Structures are given as C-alpha cells and as structure tokens.
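Practice problem: Phosphate transport system permease protein
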Amino acid sequence: MTATTSPAPPGTEPGGLPDAERRTPRRRPRAQRVVERGASRVFRWTATGAGALILIVLAAVAVFLVLKAMPAMTASSDELVDGVSFMRGSSSLLDYVGPLVFGTVLAALLALLLAVPVSIAIALFISHYAPRRLAAGLGYVVDLLAAVPSVVFGLWGAIVLAPAVQPLWAWLGENLGWVPLFGGTVSPTGRVIATVAVVLAVMILPIITAVSREVFLQTPRLHEEAALALGATRWEMIRMTVLPFGRSGVVSAAMLGLGRALGETMAVLMIISQGFLYSFLLLAAGQQQTIAANIAAQFPEASDLGMSVLIATGLALFVITLVVNMSARAIVARRKDFSGAN
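Answer key — structure tokens:
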C-alpha cells in the first residue's frame, strides 16, 4: 500500500503554516523594544561624544600651544637673543625655527622614501606570495616590531648602526661626492642625518606594512581571478588589480608613518649631532636637527622665555602634522570613487 497525502489547504505552504504566519515576523515584547531603543540611543550618543572629544582635545592642544608660545612670538629679537641661551646664534624666532623645520621635514621624507618601497614589497609578499603559515608568522613579527620602544631603536642606531654604516657613507662621499647630497666632509662617527633616516625608516616600516597588508587583502577575489583567467602573470595581476585597489590605503599608511617620523624624539636625539643649517648634506656632521629632538635637548635648562620658544617650535610641528594629515585626506578623497565592486 502506498501512503497518500492530501494537498495543502489554500493559503498555506508546505509545512502546515499559513502564509501570513510564516511571512509576518512575530512582534517582540514591548519591554524588549524599549530596552533596544534605549541601548541604541546610548550607543549613538556615546559615539557622538567620543568623536566630539577628539575635536575638543585637538582644539585644547592648539589653544595651549598658541597661548604658551605667545610670549616668544611677541618678544623682540633682542629680548630673545639676550634672554634665551640656546638662541645665541639666531637673529630672530623665525631664524631659529626655520632650520629646525627644515631638518624635521628632511629626516621624515628621507625615512618615508626608504620605508615605503620596502613596506609595499613586504605587504605584497605576505598577502599574495608567502605560504599561509609563513605569512602568519611574518605578519606577527612585523606587528611585534611596532611595539619596540623608540629608545631601543635610538640605542641600536647610535651603538650598532652608525659604526656599521660609516664605511658605506665614506664610500659614497669618496665616489659620489660630486652629488650634492653626498658632498662635504663625511662624519667619522656615522651619526648623521642619513643614519637617522635609516633608523626612522625601520621604525615606521611596521605601520606602513601592516596597513598596506590589510588593504591588499581586501582586493576583490573576482578581480584577481579574472586577471589570471585572461592569462596575466601573478605580477601583472598585482599591477592591474591589487595596486590600483590599494593605492589610497597605501597613501594613508604612508601618511601615518610620516606622522610618526615627524614627531620622533629619542631615536633622533641619541644619534644625530646637532646643527642649525639649511643643508642637504646627508653625510656631514653638525648640519641638521629636528624639532622634537631639540625640545628634548633644551627643555631641562630652559628659562620661562626659553620654554616659550620651545613651545613655539612645537606649534610649528603641530601645524606641519596637521597639514600632512589634511593633505593625506585630500589625496584619499580623490580616490574614493574607486571601488572593488566597480
């Protein structure tokens, strides 16, 4: 005998439930809806308050720097030169701050120039070339490198790196001295702006690598497979899909690294020999100095007016960092129309 099943009555679906009962979600209890609305409102206001707090802190820092730097900005040149011991070789506040700004930007740009290509290469290796286990281990090592304190990098740069690279700097000065960057008398200690740039590049490398790696991993899989299906090699696939997709992310990562390099203090202070010149000589001693390192060096013995001068240099660094971040946002905004779904 075979079992027979009667057809479902009208208005029901297989399973025995009426259409309206299956398709209409059950209303949650009123108390639960009230609690969820309250939690949503609390979360919204908490997030809004956190965003506003960032703006308040930023504005408070700017106001503090302006107020504390005002005595130095309103004082005459004679008062500054006579009242601030470390300004004896400068004729005005601008004459003192200018070389520091130049040295800060030069060291940061050199570090960025060294770090970005290496970071992109490491990020591509981790995301698209390395086996899964090796990629996981290498990514962990890169992230761990970001946790090393800057004073450790400073000790390494002053004690280990500077003597190790001095023969290379001497060779560059001897054979490429006709290039303006490598001209002048090469320092016998290796404690020059070029060594500082190498140390800063190592310090910002984990930041740029980590962000670039995550951006490259977000490349749509269909784009990569389509390029490979059309006969592209792995490098051609990366050049046509991964790099264009991650360009804005790489720019953001580079700007994060640049911000770290601009504000670095101890590593620079422990390596470089102080100088206040507008000089592009990378291998000569006593040429450049950065704002952060100069503040750390002069802070212990600064008078009230000297403290105001140092805060004025800090205000200049604040403005530089603000301009860098605004420029980065503008660059990224120009690429916002590009989407992996296009």
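Discussion: Residues 26 and 78 are 81 Å apart (CA to CA). Students who identified this feature from the tokens alone can consider the problem solved.
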